[in-house]
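INPUT
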Amino acid sequence: MSDKPSDYCGIFGIYNHPEAAAMTYYGLHALQHRGQESAGIVSSVFDEERGHYVMPMHKDFGLVLNVFEDKKIFTDKLRGLKAIGHNRYSTSGSSSNPANIQPFRVHYRNGNLALAHNGNLTNAPSLRQRFINEGILFQSTSDTELILHLISHSLKTGQFEQIMDALRQIEGAYCLVIQTDDALIAVRDPNGFRPLALGRLGDAFVVASETCAFDIIGAEYVRDIAPGEVLVIDDEAIETAKPASYMLPRKPGTDTAGCVFEYVYFSRPDSRIFGENVDKVRRQIGKHLAREHRIPDIIRSESDKKPIVISVPDSSNTAALGYAGESRKLGYDCKFEIGLIRNHYVGRTFIAPGQESRQFKVRTKFNPVRGVIEDRIVLIVDDSIVRGTTSRMLIDMIRKCNPKEIHFLVSSPPIIEPCFYGMDFPSPDELIANKFDRDVSRIARELGVDSLHYLSPQGLIEAVKEANEGKLNYCSACFTGKYPVPVEAQMGKEANELV
Amino acid sequence: MSDKPSDYCGIFGIYNHPEAAAMTYYGLHALQHRGQESAGIVSSVFDEERGHYVMPMHKDFGLVLNVFEDKKIFTDKLRGLKAIGHNRYSTSGSSSNPANIQPFRVHYRNGNLALAHNGNLTNAPSLRQRFINEGILFQSTSDTELILHLISHSLKTGQFEQIMDALRQIEGAYCLVIQTDDALIAVRDPNGFRPLALGRLGDAFVVASETCAFDIIGAEYVRDIAPGEVLVIDDEAIETAKPASYMLPRKPGTDTAGCVFEYVYFSRPDSRIFGENVDKVRRQIGKHLAREHRIPDIIRSESDKKPIVISVPDSSNTAALGYAGESRKLGYDCKFEIGLIRNHYVGRTFIAPGQESRQFKVRTKFNPVRGVIEDRIVLIVDDSIVRGTTSRMLIDMIRKCNPKEIHFLVSSPPIIEPCFYGMDFPSPDELIANKFDRDVSRIARELGVDSLHYLSPQGLIEAVKEANEGKLNYCSACFTGKYPVPVEAQMGKEANELV
Amino acid sequence: MSDKPSDYCGIFGIYNHPEAAAMTYYGLHALQHRGQESAGIVSSVFDEERGHYVMPMHKDFGLVLNVFEDKKIFTDKLRGLKAIGHNRYSTSGSSSNPANIQPFRVHYRNGNLALAHNGNLTNAPSLRQRFINEGILFQSTSDTELILHLISHSLKTGQFEQIMDALRQIEGAYCLVIQTDDALIAVRDPNGFRPLALGRLGDAFVVASETCAFDIIGAEYVRDIAPGEVLVIDDEAIETAKPASYMLPRKPGTDTAGCVFEYVYFSRPDSRIFGENVDKVRRQIGKHLAREHRIPDIIRSESDKKPIVISVPDSSNTAALGYAGESRKLGYDCKFEIGLIRNHYVGRTFIAPGQESRQFKVRTKFNPVRGVIEDRIVLIVDDSIVRGTTSRMLIDMIRKCNPKEIHFLVSSPPIIEPCFYGMDFPSPDELIANKFDRDVSRIARELGVDSLHYLSPQGLIEAVKEANEGKLNYCSACFTGKYPVPVEAQMGKEANELV
Amino acid sequence: MSDKPSDYCGIFGIYNHPEAAAMTYYGLHALQHRGQESAGIVSSVFDEERGHYVMPMHKDFGLVLNVFEDKKIFTDKLRGLKAIGHNRYSTSGSSSNPANIQPFRVHYRNGNLALAHNGNLTNAPSLRQRFINEGILFQSTSDTELILHLISHSLKTGQFEQIMDALRQIEGAYCLVIQTDDALIAVRDPNGFRPLALGRLGDAFVVASETCAFDIIGAEYVRDIAPGEVLVIDDEAIETAKPASYMLPRKPGTDTAGCVFEYVYFSRPDSRIFGENVDKVRRQIGKHLAREHRIPDIIRSESDKKPIVISVPDSSNTAALGYAGESRKLGYDCKFEIGLIRNHYVGRTFIAPGQESRQFKVRTKFNPVRGVIEDRIVLIVDDSIVRGTTSRMLIDMIRKCNPKEIHFLVSSPPIIEPCFYGMDFPSPDELIANKFDRDVSRIARELGVDSLHYLSPQGLIEAVKEANEGKLNYCSACFTGKYPVPVEAQMGKEANELV
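OUTPUT
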């Protein structure tokens, strides 16, 4: 996907490690692709002087490495054997309000609590209205604050029971890591929309949105947190090497619904999510793409040079390799090539005045390799198209290198519907797949390619299930409009927020 | 007072001015001496696009001029015809928690609300406990947040009735400016501990802790807000030129209790508080000091040069002038001189490693003028002594200029008790007046002066009442231990706060 | 002087102190009034690893306390037993060019050299042209760089001889501290325009523009550096307790020429310069003012209240005290009062958009005390008037407090000519004294006062000489146009400078 | 190369473009890989008020996008139709001295001059000594300043003649862009060590170290600047569309000597340098590597799965593709795979305390894809090995994914000698190729691989010449010790520099 959608958060937790906060920092760094707007860590340390636990916190807008630039934070402030962390890109809540930066930390009558949350609550509007009617004051526009109020207002006795009470009231797509004075609690929603995995690092347990966060600290993957599972990691779990597990009921009439877009684009290729390596799934997707769209059916002219398959780096690399390999296996000669170089120094506020055009933005990110492209039939594989503006610019650049033909292969179906479970797509009428009467050949013309080919929804789900051996059902609502879990009417309406 | 106590906040509000936020900025600047830790402004502007009012806010740690260094804040963000502002030095609440910076702003079911508060609620512990028991989450450790929760949880109908409901539940020493979408509400506690004045600037009304904030913007002083008064400044008030006024009942058995320390040290000499110019009151205090401690009774040796009266600049200047003038009137020859130069560039983090001694801190702030002091009998007038450490260093410096004698005259009585109404004195055992068995001659020896003379409590109150024509009764609990309003037992206990 | 002229630099040096850089920091802080644009320190430390001395440096735009905000600079970087420092406000050279920030530090064929300079070289244009013709590249537009090139290009053998060679070629008003690997060299120009004093702190020698820099670190004043003296402080000087002294010849036909404006306004009242306390000289000036302008000749109406004498704080305080005391001695009853409060938190970028008027600037700096001024005949004493704009605003503010009369007394003559020796006055046609045909009564009207009275040039010089016992002759060219040392024609022409 | 050597600078210049500085900014961004320590731009604009040209400058430590974060710099400051820019990583000169940041800008008797320089002058020691003896003061330790002094001291008449005079005196490996009031002058050293290309953007001419800087702004590549060419781009060049060209003589006995390491590692694959696409040359190098090291000779065990070829991204991608393709052509079955994911958010100060190990640094940069590597025979292709530490860590990580075998193929010969022409290799005894008696099998053991295979020096040069059709001779001194241009003895000795 060259038209990158907004990310939607990465979470991390660790229990029983002497450098808990530093490990969280590395974990968040590995999860940086899941949210670049803000980052935060809350650790938990026993304060000898006060005789109770405290939860030091550091969070701010910016990339992980900027927010934690001053390394003294780890030795002077974020001490303790447990910590949780969060990377954020807002999907609900105003992104410019610092009060929305996670994790959230509170002290209430039953003690300390810190919480990091990823996803969207589909019943947030009614929960929020209920609290507003009671005169509760909100400090943020984040769904996460709702969970804290639910816990704090619970009439149950005991912190864990209050947490369970709150969890039973929320609906939607979410993963949570909750830190109390005694435990690290990891929660995955009953439909399992978002990935969450359990790992082990020496005597410590870790949880993270993706396993790439385990690799960076040398932790081992243990297993996924199951849909609906509430996993309690405390001293007993350390002793027995087995965290206690509780289950939240699934909403009747709904099934598991792993977000297929995590495999298509969002997760890192070196992660294992929903029980399978992302790279392997993407390769399988590429193979299906090759079977659905065969090279001889695509290319138009004769050439003495083999057609080349190039990817939009880095997210489409594996699908492109899968496409090229499978095509060769099917007997169609072609070569995988690196036809686009990606420049990695780009930041947010890069563009100078007068150059606000997308053309410039694309050029600062990608550069085509003329020697590879010139005079060739080019099959470019991308994981998805959202607005299509970046794709068009990219095609323009490739076209200037004088290829014979350009064909655009997309390793996912057309995105036509909004996501209410955490993906931040633009409104449906901004999606290119909804324009030009959804006529693919007209969209191809608009993009400037000789032909455009999407993977079919069935092909996508088949590919994923083949690679993943049917461990889960998937949500592909953004491609099909079939929403596996109902959504409250006001969802998506802007909160009445102060500026 | 060379041992400066912590300040305790300045508040400001303005209604119906095209540059409301900029005026607030200047007002806060004039009130900078009342709090140097943080500063903030919330304005109120109608958002045409959204069809309702919004309350833009800017606040941060630092001096007013640092927090509002970027002047674009006024044109780009803090727009609108009304605004409130706050300077803070914490007396309750952790000073390092940014959530404690005022003003506070919320949106609740009855609309927008912003609030700036100065003082201490004496029933805060029980109010807080009540909310904690209900599961309410606090974002700050500030008393001010309590008032917001009281308003938001009120069962009354209508915003103003909810505010009155909340005000009836709080006790202690406070002034408030509250901004709603329709009004600016100014409140002074029923005992009138802290000053709050009403002013006029063209078509606008202004309220401020001290009138020096009116002078800087060219506003005219109208009158003091009365003890217990709730003044509502809205469009009707602008039309009729008369804000509506409501009264809060005074706690039975209590009387008005203006903080006499405002006159002694805290307020600016160019302000008018409690109905009288501070400068005039201080001069009267200086005169009483001259009558209680007559020069011939103080000096020990003969000299052909007149004794000189010097002040610790700038807060003691007027009292010293009053002392010298009255002494001459009583027939004791003496000269007022400027014997100490104050350096005004000092900031908080001034001292270099290895020079942490108080001696250095004093030297960077004051320098004696040798030519004035040498060979003279020196009568130094200071407004108060708290810990005494700075005074001792100052005396050391003066001593090095070889005066014949040094006598220390304090224009207030010994501070021996804590203040529960907003003054941030150190704990009683750190007060020098409580050391050495409260023996003044031993304290004089400790300070290194030839004699030490405090104004008597009666003398102080008489002086204030003479100058102020008996308009108010005063609280002098820090000198006498007689607290005019009862204080809850837990007051002063540290909140269980996160770090 | 309420219309503050630009300052022109303070210099400091210390030899043989274990915390040389920290002492320099405090010294510069005490000299902050001499230059607020930039600050810098160069220390000198033996680098064991490299086997030779190095000169660590830290300098930047800003006040001393801002530039050295990070106190680790002193322990980690500016180590060593000697250091020199500089505060700067540019009079020549572009102030916005960081290359102009002093001290300057170089390594040339004869070793390390660092230099801090205050004043103006009157033969800079020809020196600069000579180097330009030779193809020498300049990094700054500062006169100081010229001195470095002169030293480096000298054909003499030995660093000290090269320095002397350079000094013999420069003319004008200057003080220098030069740091080499072995010595600290302090130089004062042969006419002695600017002050420079020698002090002692334990085993260390210190030099500084004003003695207030000695007081802050507890150093003792030893003596002034003589006009034309080159003082060499090295290990031998430490052992013998006597620095070696060399003399530069004075330009034939010229005499000593201490800048009288240092006494009038520029130096701190607690400093001793040109051999006498500034405070004492200012008091003498005030007395002369009282003799030249007697109260009965000034006031117009009858009043049952004594006329009051107020100062523009803080620079005019002593002159006002002198005026009031002498007037009383002459039999004219009057009272010294504090009628203006000065606000000390003002920074450079204070004014908000829309309030750019001078009126606002003045209000943020001064506030009159109504109770003191109302209904009184006010004699306001200020040290000088430059453009007059601030004075006019100040008078406006005082007028609003309803005094009976306002009379303006200036403790120096009208400033009518430019200074080529370091004072940064505006161009002559901007000086108020040159407007209105130099008619004092018309200027009074412009300022809004009932009368205006300047001290005569003779009166000023007499007062200074009386206080200072004729130790020096003085330059009063800004009042008289008589320049004691010739100035090159191109002086004042802007350098062809890059932006 | 996973052990990245220090970069050595990128330069850029543009003449006759309305947004010259913004174009330079983008160009520098594309050249960011050539130097990450500092960045700077000097533009040239006619100052109507002053009646002459001025050269506004902005430069600082940091990446291009950080240094130019405030985009107002382009509209408010760096105006004008021409500009030059520089990215720097120091090879000579202290990197921490801000005075070393380029471009350099001076005003001397013949006008303004700005200069950006990349490379090393091999006769810098004697040139510097000559100036030192004359008493010239240096502000930086950079070779570039020498060129400025040579120009400024030239006895020739006219700026261009002075520049030519200076160029005739310098020796070594360098490219220069020089900006005068009238022209942009691009210079490449007579041996042509470093690349420099001419491009065209509408009516403007551009020059840049690599053509990727042309692509980002949409400029067209015209031709390389020839070895020894001095190209003058002025208004006449714009009119005639042909810049004037002058030639510098080559040192007798020397030949052209393009740095072969530019092709191996340093330049971007999408650039065209020395007349050929880098990508194409690297592919040819990969093919030669395949011919020299045939898969059957490398692998040890039988496997039913094809061996996989993976690269160390991104610099080795093309060589790995070339290796895999050629191997298949030679009849050895294998697959190109993406086995390592590179994380692109890593900054300089990334590592937290306690994790200083290289292991952590490598993990934060690379993550192996377990699904790709597990159970496979892995042939990893990297462009070069310097110290070998990073390679060893990388191998460790790959080893943990349980491959059957790991073989390390290096697409260049062992680096055994220092570079005096601008490449910043560590000292020879730190190079892994010089350890273990240069025994490749022992080095393989040290790295933890089953075998290690370097491309031969002949193979490298052949590959380059085949791809590049013999347009140039190459320097491969770092592999062979044969230095094509003599180097002065003191080269590499540290300058006597101030800290």
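end of record. Chain A touches chain D through 62 residues (CB under 8 Å).
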